[in-house]
TrEMBL record, chains A, B:
Belongs to the HAD-like hydrolase superfamily. InterPro entries: HAD-like_sf, HAD-SF_hydro_IIA, HAD_sf, LHPP/HDHD2. This is Phospholysine phosphohistidine inorganic pyrophosphate phosphatase. It comes from Pyxicephalus adspersus (African bullfrog). Keywords: Cytoplasm, Hydrolase, Magnesium, Metal-binding, Nucleus. Its cofactor is Mg(2+). It comes from the Eukaryota.
Amino acid sequence: MASWARGVRAVLLDVSGVLYDSGGPEGGAAIPGSVEAVNRIRQSGLKLRFCTNESQATRSQFVHKLQRFDFSISEEEVTAPGPAAKKMMQERGLRPHLLVHDDLLPEFDSIDKSEPNCVVIGDAAENFSYQNVNKAFNVLIGLEKPVLISLGKGRYYKETDGLKIDVGAYMKALEYACDITAEVVGKPSQNFFMSAVNEMGVKPDEAVMIGDDVVNDIGGAQRCGIRAVLVRTGKYRPSDENHPQVKADGYVDNLAQAVDILLASGVAGH
Amino acid sequence: MASWARGVRAVLLDVSGVLYDSGGPEGGAAIPGSVEAVNRIRQSGLKLRFCTNESQATRSQFVHKLQRFDFSISEEEVTAPGPAAKKMMQERGLRPHLLVHDDLLPEFDSIDKSEPNCVVIGDAAENFSYQNVNKAFNVLIGLEKPVLISLGKGRYYKETDGLKIDVGAYMKALEYACDITAEVVGKPSQNFFMSAVNEMGVKPDEAVMIGDDVVNDIGGAQRCGIRAVLVRTGKYRPSDENHPQVKADGYVDNLAQAVDILLASGVAGH
């Protein structure tokens, strides 16, 4: 029995690269065995939450897409950076200039965007045109105290047709151009993981994070005292198992195998 | 008399922001007094070289543009990153994937670009689409030893219609996405300044660099033992005079004033 599974009461699941690979005309494809794996977690009595840096859609659209792939998932089970950023802006009186995917825009419908005093970037994909990046740069450099909020800081992710450069790269571009440091909402920020764990009503050391991003999923969770297991799906590369800074608590071929191990260890929450 | 002018035998001039501001339908506008200032340097007997990170055009096109603004300048007087990168690729057997401005492409006509084993980025401006940046990322991440060559690493520059984010930001984006460090050809690299000084046949401490970029022009030149003077034109901002790392040897309102000071100090090379 793998020691990472001992005493686990709650499971945090990354979505892209663990449940499905995004991209393509169908909007992606479920990773074999993952639909059943989610169902088996539910049946086991383990607490479950989805912890994603997805910022190409509202949480509602995102959940509907996963439901079309037959995943058992509901909106209130998802911790996502869009809603977290919205909350932060409301608390701090921030009015964003948005450089995000068109499909994420409705998440911020109710937020005042006049005379922006911050820039929010998400995984804008095709919206990362030179013109749009330059516009965001000019908003920032024109502020007395530039505030850049980044929805995650991933380096890249995998779509069905290949690897895609992620929001973290554009965050670094704007940080450098403006000589500032962004505030990250989403993994690997500690607040983000802790809000997901708190939602489940467990302690960090009772939860395990399962993800395909060695730095943001594994390293991020571990810094909160959450165990973390790397799947060999999604953007996984063999060199991730020799990462100079991060060592996962376990390595599995895919989510299905992680659930096999969890259930074999008799960790069911009942 | 300003001490920075003492014993100067050679002048290195940055171009964009010192001679002219680029941009707009006319391709930019000369900065008042700069055409005459260049002529006065020539008449003084001081050695002169143009040291630019311009990478939106071939050296030849760039020089023709400046000549249309009445600047006295010839191709062989210009140290530019395109030709320097070409030389480096020839010496090291590098075959580039190019993410550069369309107008720079002819500079690399004679270079083998099949099966790329490196990526070269310049100030690609509108060519910095998400698709093109993602393509460059995929070339790099697919290489066993990714080599990224950046034509300069400027944060931003000023065009006639405002500030523009520069190649350095995209260099940082690709560095982060691929977890690599780029090789910079152009200012502030030491090789680049030294080749310009050597072309003039003077020692570093006999030359003065005049530029509008506190890090790349001023800091870069000073690290080679070249004096450096910041102009208050181009992308200059008052905060540049309180830069935490870099203190220029002198500050002038524009190139014309720098030349006034140089000539008043009787430094003429004859």
